[in-house]
Amino acid sequence: MKVIKLLEKKKIFRAAEMLFKAKDAIVLTGAGVSTESGIPDFRGDGGIWEKYKPEIYGNIQAFIKNPAKFWELAEKVAPTLFKAKPNAGHIALAELEKMDIIKAIITQNIDELHQKAGAVIVYEVHGNINRFTCLGCKASYTKEQVLKKLKKEKNYPPLCDVCTAPLKPSVTLFGEALPTFEIYQSQALSQKADVMLIAGSSLEVAPVSNLPLYTLREGGKLIIVNDQPTYLDEKAEVVIHHKTGTVLPLIVEEVKKLKARKDSKN
Ligand SMILES: NC(=O)c1ccc[n+]([C@@H]2O[C@H](COP(=O)([O-])OP(=O)(O)OC[C@H]3O[C@@H](n4cnc5c(N)ncnc54)[C@H](O)[C@@H]3O)[C@@H](O)[C@H]2O)c1
Ligand SMILES: [Zn+2]
Description:
By secondary structure, the protein is α/β, with parallel strands linked by helices. Helices cover 42% and strands 15% of the residues. The protein has a domain at 6-41 and 90-123 and 178-265: Rossmann fold. The strands form two sheets. The protein has a six-stranded parallel beta sheet with strand order 3-2-1-7-8-9, with helices on both faces. Strand 2 (104-107), helix 6 (113-116) and strand 3 (122-124) form a beta-alpha-beta unit. It starts with 5 loop residues before the first helix and ends with a helix. It binds nicotinamide-adenine-dinucleotide and zinc ion. Zinc ion is lined by residues 134, 136-137, 139, 160, 162-163, 165.
């Protein structure tokens, strides 16, 4: 706990206690949990939006107009995404799931690092980079199939074998609807949650940024771990402005101590 101030320590104890006592705790994560794995976020310092404007690259209308341009960026970003490894924050959250302290992780990330860290119950509300969908007939393709096509066709965008429309990664772009099952499930889980731990999200992208409101409305409590303030800081029970890769493992350490204490009494 060397790098963490005394005040932060108290907050970490409090967060651990809340999670330990909760019956239906869940986690909501954003791009911030993956920056320590080398994947830049959108709104933190040095976010990729400084280099690649969302209105050109991350928007469905722009994709439809010029899919080749999107694929040129995808080619630059994909290697970082594919080779990234989970960091201490992802591992800590997977441990909370294994200990049955949390019921699920809702993530805005498309990098699969929660699953790579061992988490199983993960709802990807903005999709996933390992699948691709045809814009025309909605046929679905795996990453391997698309890589094979790109190698063979040597042309952007890769085209659907069935209808020849462009293929798009199954990630939600600005202006697109969110995956129905994942968002409904996330709303239901948020409503039921007595504690929601929010980690590494600016809470600026709707509708995901509204999920904590479902929790608050039903009397649930929020824990926020983010290195910058969010619009919900004043409504949260615990706010820790620090790195998720440092704080989340410390919370897990405290949860383990609480668990050991309880087990020794039984
Ligand atoms: N890894 C990924 O999959 C990835 C990467 C970039 C963007 N996105 C997409 O970004 C969109 C934006 O929403 P968002 O809220 O997820 O991201 P965001 O970029 O809006 O916010 C990230 C927040 O995390 C904070 N942060 C960065 N590194 C941190 C760290 N190590 N510890 C604590 N806080 C840290 C930043 O200050 C910022 O407030 C989402 O739609 C998501 O799909 C995903
Ligand atoms: Zn098609």
